[in-house]
Design a protein that fits this description.
224 residues; mainly alpha
């Protein structure tokens, strides 16, 4: 289980540091009902990841069982290769034009500051549903877990750890705002402004570094 967890670490970091999702959260938290809408937004994201884990865990479990270790390895390596290509493509597009194919519509940033908790939950669900990279992140995590052939309970626990760790960058500011609202508000305002100004550079760096890593990981997995 320790080895599988180590293999998941790059996926956890890359999925958790998705700049667009973090920017949206900061807009929610700086809004009128920041704590409620931020929590609802994160709840929508977590709900989608849990549903994906159940559905695709069952599907990939059947695929792995019918094709053996080699089938699971090829599937996981292919997913990592696709993820690497998607991230590098997003990084190149962000560098050339500032556009990211997985970014939500621009009006989301405006609506987020005045959204209700229900709307925030729906935006969290849609943020996961419309972004191809997030689907591949989840599938890659499930494939990695299936490849290690853990007993079902360990596999479920490992996936829940994946969901929790990926959620930490979003959960931390929410908890901070709940525990120390005045101090957290000042920090969130400064951090949100910094991310607004530097989001393009952050995205290019994240997509470039992790895209290269997943591309190499996928290629070496397919060739081994």
């Amino acid at each position: 289980m320790t080895g599988a967890l180590a293999d998941l670490v790059p996926l956890m970091i890359a999925a958790g540091l998705t700049p667009v999702v973090l920017l949206l959260l900061f807009v929610f938290l700086r809004g009128e009902r920041g704590l409620l809408t931020g929590t609802a937004f994160l709840s929508g994201i977590v709900a989608v990841r849990l549903i994906q884990g159940v559905v695709f865990g069952l599907i990939l479990g059947n695929v792995s069982g019918s094709n053996g270790d080699n089938g699971a390895r090829i599937f996981t390596s292919t997913l990592l290769l696709v993820l690497g290509l998607l991230m590098l493509n997003s990084g190149i597009r962000k560098f050339n034009s500032g556009a990211d194919p997985d970014e939500p519509p621009p009006e989301w940033m405006t609506r987020a500051s005045t959204a209700t908790p229900v709307h925030a939950f729906g935006m969290g669900v849609l943020a996961m549903a419309i972004a191809g990279k997030h689907w591949v992140f989840t599938l890659g995590a499930i494939g990695t877990i299936q490849e290690t052939e853990l007993v079902p309970n360990q596999g479920v626990m490992l996936y829940l750890i994946f969901v929790f760790v990926v959620s930490l960058p979003l959960l931390t500011p929410i908890v901070s705002l709940a525990v120390a609202p005045q101090r957290a508000s000042i920090v969130l305002e400064a951090l949100g402004s910094w991310m607004d100004k530097n989001s393009r550079i952050i995205m290019i760096a994240v997509y470039g570094v992790f895209g290269t890593y997943f591309l190499i990981k996928g290629v070496t997995g397919l060739l081994s």
